[in-house]
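Dear U.,

Please find below the material for section 3 of the report. The protein was modelled together with 2-oxoglutaric acid; I have listed the sequence and SMILES used, followed by the predicted complex structure.
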Amino acid sequence: MKFESSYLQRVYDGLESRNAEQKEFLQAVAEVLESLEPVVAANPELERWGIIERIVEPERIIQFRVSWVDDNGKVQVNRGYRVQFNSAIGPYKGGLRLHPSVNLSVIKFLGFEQIFKNSLTTLPIGGGKGGSDFDPKGKSDMEIMRFCQAFMTELEKHIGADTDVPAGDIGVGGREIGFMYGQYKRLRNEFTGVLTGKGLTYGGSLARTEATGYGLCYYTQEALKSLRNTDFNGKTVAVSGAGNVAIYAIQKAYQLGGKPVTCSDSTGWIYDPEGIDVDLLKEVKEVKRARLTEYAAARPSAEYHEKKNGEHGVWSVKCDIALPCATQNELDENDAKMLIDNGVLAVCEGANMPSTPAAIEALKKAGVLFGPAKAANAGGVATSALEMSQNSERLHWTFEEVDEKLQHIMTGIVHNSLDAAAKYGLDGDLVAGANIAGFEKVADAMIAQGVAY
Ligand SMILES: NC(=O)C1=CN([C@@H]2O[C@H](COP(=O)(O)OP(=O)(O)OC[C@H]3O[C@@H](n4cnc5c(N)ncnc54)[C@H](OP(=O)(O)O)[C@@H]3O)[C@@H](O)[C@H]2O)C=CC1
Ligand SMILES: O=C(O)CCC(=O)C(=O)O
């Protein structure tokens, strides 16, 4: 990776030599540092205060053994992580991922992204992320509960409502948050807002379940209006994923006048020219935790395709708006070219880092509106911060109140990103704008607090 600034080059080279095997982490750092070239050139005090070398190094990494007993009485061992990346603007905040692909590189990339995303929300939350290589697929409710209790038995020592507030991510939804919350309470004898995404009967916020997907569409709508003078109305939408983010992005895309025609899971994908049936999708994925073959079996208009390596999957479908909502690096340069050839107008990221660097470059070069994850999917964590506010004041807000605040935050992110980009002569660049706007607030807070970490 080549930088114009010798300061950025020195920091990146050092980071690369210390973390050579952490590909996802280095990818996320490279993208942010590239955007910061003009900021570093204009602000020599960043080097004086060592801001770049400090911001790429987590304040704390906790790695631990998670031992639990399966339904056959056999002891299983997994690896747990919590990366507390940056607390300059608030308590560490970010989700927990349960997936066999989880390793330190994945958790560090997610935690690093979370710093800037959380800053963009304008709310007082620092960056963190955690998880485990535990695979929830095929496990019974009791196995999930025993794993979550074992995981929280260690995590509890490191978190707190004013210290670090985890939430959900891939493989962690309401069921897992409930089990973890119960264990935290048992160990600490304390009813407090230490996790978000809680159930509505014990401190959860209305609209948190919907927030990431809804927020993604609010962001996309505002970016389309501001940069292309258009909106969702009458547009065909391709969505990947079939989990929390994808489901509520599909629901909101309909409400805004779009027609979502695809979704996918880890084994296959659906093309439904009549439009995805959201209620059926929820039933199959949220309630039954089944495969998308069940969706296709119940829906005559739907085509089911097995996932095949090297094929474009949902990105082969002609669409106006593409919303990747599954996982990192799921949209590569070839997929981007396919979308461009099919006339795509906008790609906005619901998942974290779903597009490869080459895909982003191709899309931007072709003039496609590109909304980066840390801005476009910030609605989830923003609403988590609203849940923290409600927990602190021991009150509940209505769905409409939370949704209105979410809309305000997402439209604000578009404009703050555009303003930050324009300040450095990068008009219309939502990637650079998000990185710069997110960074400037955190850097300012780090300088104000001295060399504290
Ligand atoms: N939940 C939230 O509030 C937020 C989530 N995100 C990001 O959004 C993305 C999706 O998260 P979320 O919807 O919560 O997670 P879920 O676990 O609810 O859903 C994930 C979906 O993606 C699919 N998927 C996961 N891994 C792969 C893979 N390697 N290949 C293909 N498909 C895969 C899953 O398939 P299957 O059903 O087969 O498991 C599932 O359909 C992640 O990148 C997450 O970090 C970002 C901001 C907030
Ligand atoms: O709601 C949260 O705290 C975390 C959401 C999250 O993990 C993310 O934004 O990627």
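For the text of the report, you could mention the following: Residues 6-55 form one domain.

Regards,
Y.
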